[in-house]
Structure formats: structure tokens, C-alpha cells
Design goal:
The chain contains 5 helices and 8 strands; from the N terminus they run E-E-H-H-H-H-E-E-H-E-E-E-E. With 177 residues, the protein is an alpha+beta fold. Strand 5 and strand 6 form a beta hairpin. The chain is rod-shaped. The relative contact order is 0.11.
Length: 177
């Protein structure tokens, strides 16, 4: 702290740094003040012991901007990787399930309705599955009755009704929790 007080040894008012070393330690042998005392007397150096702003280390603006850009890029990359790693709760399960069911039921690209009753159908874990095949007004279904809000997917496919009798039909899957 810098303060003023009257010096008892002479009639002038002098500035002293409270808590500073004695006068003998602040003055050189020739009686001139040391450099740090001259700086304080000039007002260039704060009295709390810090260096003046023009003598302290500073960072260039370009390197500061580069550092900020690197941090922003790292945070963006982290957020992107985190978003890919965290499983989504409302993921699309109907389309992949439709592909797996079609691959299981359609030998050589043709669905055979009797396979629907005997095949183990590949539904997603934790989900319930309803599969139906429709052709010429006839319908084959496997699985529980789906609720109204369930996710569904369908596709056109060839359906074998009898030997050498193949008709266009529709395969539909409904998936829900």
C-alpha cells in the first residue's frame, strides 16, 4: 500500500511504502535510489510489487485467436463424437426390421406365406413385432395386435401362393415397445 506520512527526520512530506524495507536497503551506496524505487516514484510501477503493464509478458493477437479456434474445434469434435456414441431413444427400428424380416421370409426374393408361421422373426431387443403379408385380398399375420401409435414399415414384394403362381403383394412390419 502506498500512503503519505510526515517524515520525522526532516520537515518535508515524503512518500513511503508501508511494509517496505528500510531506507538503507532501498538506496545504493552512492545515495541514489534503486531502480525499483525510481519506478515507483515515477508512477510506472504499482506499489503492490507487480511489474508495469509495458514490461509484463503479453500474448500476440494471432496466437490468442488460434488458441480459441483450437478450443472451439475440440469442443465441437467432442460434441459430435458424443452425439454419435449416445444411443437415441427414438431411433428408426421399423425399416431395419423390415429388411431383416424380408431377408428371412423371401427365399430368392419371393415371400412364401407358410414360412411366416414357422420362422423365428428377427425383431429388435425390447420391442414387440407384428408381421403381415397381404396379396389379392388375402392376409397372413404373425404377432400380437399392434397398438395405433406403433412404428411401421412396408414394401412391395413377390408372394408365392402356389407352385408356379406368384403374385405381387405387400410385406408390412409393425414395431413397438
Amino acid at each position: 500500500m502506498v500512503g503519505t506520512r510526515a517524515d520525522d527526520s526532516d520537515d518535508s512530506v515524503a512518500f513511503h511504502v508501508y511494509g517496505a524495507r528500510s531506507r538503507d536497503e532501498r538506496v545504493r551506496a552512492d545515495g541514489s535510489p534503486k531502480a525499483d524505487d525510481r519506478a515507483r516514484a515515477d508512477g510506472r510501477q504499482p506499489a503492490d510489487g507487480r511489474q508495469p503493464a509495458d514490461e509484463r509478458a503479453q500474448v500476440e493477437a494471432v496466437s490468442s485467436l488460434l488458441a480459441v479456434a483450437v478450443v472451439v474445434a475440440a469442443v465441437s469434435l467432442h460434441a459430435g463424437v458424443l452425439a454419435d456414441a449416445v444411443p437415441e431413444s427414438d431411433r428408426d427400428v421399423a425399416d431395419p426390421t423390415l429388411r431383416r424380416v424380408h431377408d428371412r421370409l423371401a427365399g430368392a426374393g419371393v415371400v412364401r406365406p407358410p414360412r411366416l408361421a414357422n420362422a423365428s422373426l428377427p425383431g429388435p431387443d425390447g420391442f414387440r413385432l407384428n408381421v403381415s403379408v397381404t396379396v389379392d385380398g388375402r392376409r397372413w399375420t404373425r404377432g400380437p395386435v399392434p397398438p395405433v401409435h406403433a412404428e411401421s414399415a412396408g414394401r412391395s414384394t413377390a408372394v408365392r401362393l402356389a407352385p408356379a403362381h406368384v403374385r405381387p403383394g405387400r410385406l408390412r412390419v409393425v414395431v413397438w415397445r
